[in-house]
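To assess whether the prediction recovers the assembly geometry, we first specified each molecular entity separately, as shown.
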Amino acid sequence: MRKWRYVYIILLAIYFACSPTERKREQPVQNLVLVIHGGAGVITRGDMNAEQEQAHIEKLQEALTGGYAKLREGGSSLDAVQAAITILEDSPLFNAGKGAVFAANGKNELDAAIMDGKSGQAGAVAGVRHIKNPIILARLVMEKTPHVLLAGEGAEEFARSQGLILMPEEYFYTDYRWQQFLRAQEKEKNRTDSVAEKKMGTVGAVALDKYGNLAAGTSTGGMTYKKYNRIGDTPLIGAGTYADNYACAVSATGHGEFFIRGVVAYDIAARMEYLGLTVAEAVHEVIESKLTARGGTGGVIALDAIGNIAMDFNTSGMYRGFIRNDNAPQVWIYKE
Amino acid sequence: MRKWRYVYIILLAIYFACSPTERKREQPVQNLVLVIHGGAGVITRGDMNAEQEQAHIEKLQEALTGGYAKLREGGSSLDAVQAAITILEDSPLFNAGKGAVFAANGKNELDAAIMDGKSGQAGAVAGVRHIKNPIILARLVMEKTPHVLLAGEGAEEFARSQGLILMPEEYFYTDYRWQQFLRAQEKEKNRTDSVAEKKMGTVGAVALDKYGNLAAGTSTGGMTYKKYNRIGDTPLIGAGTYADNYACAVSATGHGEFFIRGVVAYDIAARMEYLGLTVAEAVHEVIESKLTARGGTGGVIALDAIGNIAMDFNTSGMYRGFIRNDNAPQVWIYKE
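The predicted structure of the complete assembly is given in tokenized form:
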């Protein structure tokens, strides 16, 4: 009879190894969850005074509350992601929409993407200069075109065809980002490295709605003083943004090139699906192997279909927070 | 003592389950391999006369021979991929470089990407209009900038800074593609579906050099009558192009949006690494699950680090072929 014990153990092992997504689907879905980030980077307690800290915390809470309201009233995870990101885009505190960083040509060039974990549909825009809320345009690309990614003037022509109002370039100006641009320009002239200064703050959100559907979205102004119409990871599906009900929803922030080469957002989903990892394990492994081991910096937020949250980064700080099941929003800035 | 048998079996199972890439690396590398494609789509025997068929076959053979010469003389897989794709870009027969399709604005908008399986470095350009060989510019982005993806005028400004000669738009003109554009325009006016007509022929190559390193590259004019500066899968790392010595090199062709949403090229590599599939199994599974099951069309070529080749597609034809270890190049067009 002893050999039956081994057979039993092996069968149990096979069950746990092979069917994580199947088991997930059988669980009742009761969670409403929204997770957001406002960028990862060199953010230390010394950098900020109490007032600045408070302003960031309040805006993150507002975005969480505004996005979560959509989930409460029966809206989709896409609605919640869009609402939260719109609030962050409209704030001058974050590197997206108003308050975006300046490229080397002195312009604001904005990227955004959104993805629906239920249908696998996605929309994205890259290098737009007059769109108040790039996340809304990304969603229109997803819902009103057969395409996924539209760029530059073409994307703005599409925006006009959809009745979006194009903003003058001055709308995006903030003195803080302009000073950052001037410092980057000065460093460029002196050929000193200025990556740390470039801060790379991006905003993003992932959500789970009452129908059990996941969505992810990300929006950014990219890197300060970026050249040659550089496109980062944000608008690239699988790099900075990804959602699939059978794995997770992911939004990334950080040194975009590392996220592109490592196909970071999709790699998290793939490790969950193919290796049976939890969302926290997959996020941790990918940050270690695709970022830290290669010298890249940044972080991600991720959410699985039963409401497990992961927020992980290898920088000193990441603006982040979540709200779940009508509890109060929780928000953090620093590592500990 | 019987229980040791079980322990032994379990250890053996763990070894085979966990270390497929480790085992691969122990094999001696002796293969020189180059695989290319010239696009997948509705290509049936009735469509082509013998002369056209012969012209395509000869050009594919020329690209294979030209690229393989680099491998023979000790060049890298990147050199071979670049040489083969340059020959196809310079030919008016394929939808890349000269002979690219026209976008809805009557312009040729070219995309390309290249990736080094050894270092994980990558370069790509999207929406360039005056670059004779976008694959060469993609390689310059990889080697001369900290970025991965440059777009439009910015990418061309970078090309100029690298001493590349910009071509007049007329260079890319072919009567065949212009007639295709006019037919697409007519169909657009009449609102009839014209996806089949758009053909989506892209060119690509994957190679394995004597150092055991993989590389992948892809170049395209995109979809006929594409609008709004649409960017397809070709220049997106993980979607249409991917290479990693520990898994495989992949170049894709087809209805790009399906490849973007499915993160097709990286998914093939992920299934090899995480599920232990062979390159042929991974390619087959991904074409079934990410394309056929979702209504997408296209194909991929893939190559692993010990020289196993996969060329698979769900359309009636794909221009394709390979050359291995000094044997004569082999080329195919139709399914059987």
